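Two proteins, back to back. First:
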Amino acid sequence: MQFCLLLCLMLFTPSGASLLRPRSRETKKRAKELPVLSTAAPASRDFAFDLYRALAMAGPDQNIFFSPLSISTTLAMLSLGARSHTKEQILEGLGVRPQEGSEEELHNTFHQLLREFAQPREDVQLSLGNALFISPEVHLQDTFLSAMKTLYLADTFPTDFGDPAEAQKQINDYVAKQTQGKIADLAKDLDSTEVMIMVNYIFFKAKWRTSFDYKNTRKQDFHVTSETVVRVPMMKGEDHYYYFLDRNLSCKVVGVPYQGNATAFFILPSEGRMEQLENGLNEKTLRKWLRMFTKRQFELYLPKFSIEGSYQLEKVLPMLGINDVFTSHADLTGITNHSGIQVSEMVHKAVVEVDESGTKAAAATETIFMFKSAPMSSQRVIFNRPFLMVIVENSTNILFVGKVTHP
């Protein structure tokens, strides 16, 4: 008997691109308006970047793209039903300190986020939600079910896992509807041993504040390594962008805003300094960038790219100390009193596309239970070698983290 958890992470589909236009007295004001970044959890550790480093270690020199917000949401929900060391490891992995009120704060934070995302917005479509697909044969603990409905606003659906094909269709139809058809086949290879599937979805659609001009896109060299060069369509924009030169991490950071409150940060390390950047990147660093950003007018060259990531998180999360939930030592008795239930597989899939008209991104995770800116040296910034990207909403929630090695 297995307890499955499907996490449909995030769909990001902007349909128009933009760069920040100059406003004479806005620079310092805007920088001060950018609040602290977080993964939504009141954490002491850098979950998003600890996870990034674990993924980078598992797949060196590969493209990386994932949604830390959605993964952390799922882990938080899982912690509701975990007990003893299983719960402790999940909370520790999320950076929640073992002190009175800290776990309650974690769940309240996600609850507030869910309510916030449910509010209509003029410039951005952004939604975050959860669902439980439950076998009628399995009794869930009342406290767990109540918390899922109350704190995580989860929809619940009776599901006949004795008919795996029909159960799979029911789940995939729900996910496709919530993500406007962008994620259509999240559930795969179900069998009659499943007892419950938990789904978390995120949907985001926005436009760049100022679009790139298609006529300016030209084929240019992209240096995958010092020996490998590929030709890619390189977009060109000239405007006032947020800019910071971080000498400590040997990188340039360019902030490109979307309409509404979303921003993409593109981070270009100096040649040979990618490892230094990866090791040093954390939320404290991002907060410094937000304080020190200034507007600079320059030419920005950014490749059109499409990358995807697929990760077996049961092999990666133990690097963050989350072990027991994937083993026979798992204690999930807060979910159901059935014994012998563990998470046998947690799959995360994500894809992103960036072009002149905007950015499209989708992600899904399936879990089966079984500064001051330094002067610019030139008037252009060219992303023609591997770089990082971070997409944030309202400058508070880290939605996506990625590494573009092969555009």
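And the second protein:
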Amino acid sequence: MPVRRALIEKRPWLVASIAAALLFYYLRLTSFPEFWLVPVKGAPMALLAAYAWHRHDSRDARHLAGALALASLADMAIEFTLLAGGILFFAYHLAMIALYLRHQRDRLAPSQKLFVAALLILTPIVAFLLPEDRSMGVQTGLYALPLAGMAAGAWASRFSRYQVGIGAVLFVISDLLIFAELGPLSGSPVPNAAIWPTYFLGQFLIATGIIQALRKADPAHKH
């Protein structure tokens, strides 16, 4: 109980984000009006953005908050049109790539270089191959280019691979599951059950991992 109370008192934005994510996951399976479900879907990333904004007042924390706000808008926009959601997520990936480039590791082990290369090369290829419709495959493959760059940048950054790196890979998996619905997993219950948890957990790990690293490196800017 004391641990839970401390979490609520010190990390209210995180607790609210988790609650909103669980609420959306439940409500989407009910007859809850779709129009009102849209802001519920956008709330988890908006609350993570608020967490980033309030936990550290550095340029990088503000940058992260802005990127998460873009993800929140993308989560809502995609309910109306895939194109609008895709453009906003494209912008999110570019924003995160810029952030990771400012925090690149000086050196990478050969195995890490290989994994970064695999993310960059295989993510767009798999995204292209998953949809049955080749024209759709071209679109998903193009979208996956910044997605791959985001994940590779996270893995090659100085941020924790166990949080930020894995979070970025989970983001990739969630998007590949979306593309798989257009092909081999069409009609399968797996994507519907796994996409949202994988996406939210990935974003949660990214946000908390980056903020923890920033607070450790620059305590003077802690809130």
